Amino acid sequence: MTASAERLYRLLVESGGSAPRNTLLGGESSAGADTFTDADIDILVSLHLVSVESGTGVVSVLNPRLALTASVAQRAAEISRLHAESEQVRAGIEGLQEAYDSLGGFGDQAQAVERSNDLQLIRSLLSHAGQNCVSEVLTAQPEALQESAVADSRPRDLALLQRGVRMRTIYPHTVLSSPGVQRHFSIMQAAGSEIRTASGIIERVVIFDREVAFLADRRDRGGGAVIIREPAVVEYLYQSLEQTWRLATPFVYTRVGYGETIDDIKAGILRQMAAGAKDEVVARRMNMSTRTCRRHISEILAELGADSRFQAGMLAARLGWIDTSWTDGAQQDTAV
């Protein structure tokens, strides 16, 4: 029901209960100069609030109480139809389960670890896992969510927190450069969510109740996912994230800037520089834009008084700013 359709119904009542269709569409009536459209009349017809005589085109009001009964009955019939269709779909899919299970061990493995590039299906599975989550959601995100994604996910996350579900999320330090991201983190933290940031590469992983994990499929550029229910694999992913969580830095709202995490960011860049990585590679591994990465590199070069990126990395190693053994290993890997 729209406001315009409601005004039309009231106008018809004030006009004695009926009026010619042409008069209503032309806005000529004793009650004022409101102009209505065919859409307004169609809405009232669909709700059984008016009838239109086929010959004369006269629009007449009907009893709202009877209209309500008719509308409810119509929608109940539609719900029954959809329910019947759903049952047919369920029966059809379940009928194929026996054929799928005939794959034997491969079939069992596919159920435990499955891949999908159907984004709608992945969202549905994530939503279902969230609705059935009772204990904890542990997540690693390689980058900050877009504003549209934040607006979509925040109500679901807040609902989980209100149900007493523990939520922990790990992000790279670099996301803290965005004031919008910090505001979102602050809102979620106030609601009970736990957020930490870490240096280096973080894979996208979401684990619900240590029972099912969603892992980004790096082989699928379209945003596919691997859904894992195998207990041993899920537990391995969980313990890996748990270790990253213990070493990560708790989020502190600074409005803008990296805060105390800037030293970790610089150390991460220096390690890549010492290994001889190019700017684009360093930026990708540090989850930041090439432009931002080059700005940090320039600041590091000036701070160390170095003439090259490699020299800066070696000077930092000698000064103890980065782990020398890690640097030596990285150089050997690069040389190979």
Automatic annotation (TrEMBL):
GO terms for biological process: regulation of DNA-templated transcription. Residues 259-316 form the HTH luxR-type domain. Pfam families: GerE. GO terms for molecular function: DNA binding. SUPFAM superfamilies: C-terminal effector domain of the bipartite response regulators. This is LuxR C-terminal-related transcriptional regulator.
